[in-house]
Structures are given as structure tokens and as C-alpha cells.
């Protein structure tokens, strides 16, 4: 069992190990397992309850537990029809410490903060590989007071700005590669194991972020096009060269993988916007002057 309810599928990435469909057709069982404390896939759970029903080729598991300061509940169903199984997964995480969960589940703390996750997924297949590839459904998450570890977006913005202005690039020093945020949320639709998101939203100390993109659930590759709006405050004011961008919008392209993202800011877009705006202002000014000249000439003709 995992956060996404697909740990076995993840471990069998691309695997074609057949599901025990014939066994499910013949088993008739009902029961409930309870643990005061248990460990599954590296996760430590307390107050664990596993009600299970298997009858006439259909199985249902409705686990619940407390973990890492929060709660987990799920509804997992498998229905066998001839030689194919249909699996539905509904899972909820509430108020979970993502740093502690990530450390035990993945051995890393790529995301910290308090998180809520909602999964509503369905798939069909004869083996685990098919089930992973045909995954469809809906996903949503929200995280508060957290951080993205391994990437220092503020440093990357300052470095891109210095490169654009032809200045000496800033040095990182011993500062950790970390981007903190007060909130981060998104919803998405999954089709054939590709998660498509159109409403990612984040609030950082120095910018707000909105955008859309995709996550490949088979290989964790990400591709997002974001628009950031620079927000004035202590962080922006800490670098005088960045203050001029307060209130400006900045395109961001995010690629790589979930665990190793790459963020490329496009400061040149701000320059293009500024040049375009200056050109429009100049044109409007000349148009206004031309109109005024025409009005003066008409008044002169009428007063003759």
C-alpha cells in the first residue's frame, strides 16, 4: 500500500506479471485486520483497520489509519470479468507531514509541508503493466507552509537576471537548494497514466505562480508552463537589481522529473513586454498629437 495505492504497480514498473484473477473468482471471504501500529512499504501507521470482502470475483478493501500527524482512508475495489480485472482506487490523505512521509516512503524529502491528497482512479487489465498504463481518473492536492527541496528558485531568478543584464553571476555559497511556499495546490485529470493539470497555483515569499502542465505517472517526467508574478516584499528588496520587477509577470518553464525538477525563468519576456508597451505608448502619443493637430486645423477653418 502506498500514498497512491499503487506501490505494487510502481515496483513492477512496466512489469507484465499477471494478476491472480482465477483465485479471485473462487475465493469467498470476509474479514477485518486491525493493528495498533504497523509498517507497510516503509510507512509507519497507527490505528490501522483493513476491512476486506471477496465474493463472486469481486474484492473490496477499505483501509484507514493515522500516519505522520494526519489521516488516511481508502476504498479499493477489484472486479473480475472473464480474463480482465477492473480496479478502482479512491484514497484520501488529510493533514499529513509530507517530509516525514517522503523520508520513510522514498528515502528523501523532496516536498515538505502539511498536505491533503485526493485520488479517484480506475484502470483495467490482465497484468500490472496494463493496469499502470491504462490508469484514468482525477487527482487533487494542496500543501501549506512547505518547501520544494533541491531547487532554489530565488537564486535561479537572480542568476537569470544577471545573465540577461550582462553582470557577474551571483554565487550560491552554502545556502540550501530550497524554495519555500505558503501554499501550493492543483487538480488534474489522468488519462492513460498521463496527469494533465490546468490550475496549478502557488504562493511564495516573492511571487505567485499559476499555470498548467503534465506529469507522466510511468516515469515521473514533468512539463509545466507557468506564469509568475513578482511580489514586492523583504525577499525582493534584498536584491536591489530585482526590485524593478515588482508587479511584473515572468514566464517559467518547468521540466525534468518530480524528484529533480528544472525551472528556467524567461526574463527576456519582461524586456519584450516593456519594449512592446513603450512602442504602444509612443504610437498612442503620436496618434493623440495627430488628432490634436487635426482639431486645431478644423477650428482654424471654422473661424475664418
Features:
304 residues, alpha+beta, 3 domains, 14-stranded antiparallel beta sheet, 8 helices, 14 strands
Q: In words, what does this structure look like?
A:
There is one protein chain. This protein is an alpha+beta fold and 304 residues long. The chain has 3 domains: 134 residues, no CATH class; 129 residues, no CATH class; 30 residues. Helix content is 27%, strand content 48%. It is built from 8 helices and 14 strands. Strands 1, 2, 3, 4, 5, 6, 7, 8, 9, 10, 11, 12, 13 and 14 form a 14-stranded antiparallel beta sheet that branches. It is elongated. The N and C termini lie far apart (93 Å). The relative contact order is 0.09. The N terminus is likely disordered.
Topology:
Elements: H1 7-11, H2 21-26, E1 29-40, E2 43-55, E3 58-61, E4 64-67, E5 70-81, E6 84-97, H3 98-106, E7 111-125, H4 128-133, E8 136-149, H5 153-164, E9 178-191, E10 194-204, E11 207-216, E12 222-230, H6 234-237, H7 240-243, E13 249-256, E14 261-265, H8 267-302
Antiparallel strand pairs: 1-2, 2-3, 2-4, 3-5, 4-5, 5-6, 6-7, 7-8, 8-9, 9-10, 10-11, 11-12, 12-13, 13-14
Amino acid at each position: 500500500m502506498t500514498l497512491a495505492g499503487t506501490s505494487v504497480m510502481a515496483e513492477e514498473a512496466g512489469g507484465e506479471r499477471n494478476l491472480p484473477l482465477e483465485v479471485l473468482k473462487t475465493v469467498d471471504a470476509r474479514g477485518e485486520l486491525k493493528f495498533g501500529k504497523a509498517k507497510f512499504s516503509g510507512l509507519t501507521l497507527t490505528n490501522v483497520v483493513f476491512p476486506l470482502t471477496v465474493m463472486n470475483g469481486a474484492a473490496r478493501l477499505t483501509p484507514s489509519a493515522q500516519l505522520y500527524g494526519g489521516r488516511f482512508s481508502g476504498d479499493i475495489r477489484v472486479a473480475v470479468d472473464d480474463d480482465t480485472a477492473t480496479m478502482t482506487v479512491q484514497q484520501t490523505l488529510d493533514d499529513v507531514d509530507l517530509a516525514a512521509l517522503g523520508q520513510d516512503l522514498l528515502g528523501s524529502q523532496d516536498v515538505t509541508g502539511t498536505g491533503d491528497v485526493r485520488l479517484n482512479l480506475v484502470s483495467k487489465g490482465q497484468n500490472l503493466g496494463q493496469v499502470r498504463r491504462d490508469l484514468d481518473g482525477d487527482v487533487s492536492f494542496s500543501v501549506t507552509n512547505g518547501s520544494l527541496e533541491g531547487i532554489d528558485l530565488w537564486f535561479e531568478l537572480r542568476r537569470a537576471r544577471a545573465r540577461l543584464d550582462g553582470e557577474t553571476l551571483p554565487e550560491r555559497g552554502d545556502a540550501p537548494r530550497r524554495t519555500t511556499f505558503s501554499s501550493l495546490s492543483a487538480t488534474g485529470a489522468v488519462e492513460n497514466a498521463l496527469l494533465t493539470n490546468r490550475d496549478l497555483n502557488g504562493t511564495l515569499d516573492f511571487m505567485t505562480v499559476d499555470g498548467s502542465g503534465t506529469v507522466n505517472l510511468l516515469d515521473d517526467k514533468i512539463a509545466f508552463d507557468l506564469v509568475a508574478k513578482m511580489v514586492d516584499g523583504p525577499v525582493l528588496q534584498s536584491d536591489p537589481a530585482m526590485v524593478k520587477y515588482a508587479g511584473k509577470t515572468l514566464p517559467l518553464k518547468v521540466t525534468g522529473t518530480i524528484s529533480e525538477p528544472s525551472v528556467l525563468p524567461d526574463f527576456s519576456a519582461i524586456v519584450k513586454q516593456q519594449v512592446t508597451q513603450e512602442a504602444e505608448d509612443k504610437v498612442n502619443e503620436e496618434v493623440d498629437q495627430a488628432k490634436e493637430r487635426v482639431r486645431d486645423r478644423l477650428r482654424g477653418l471654422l473661424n475664418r
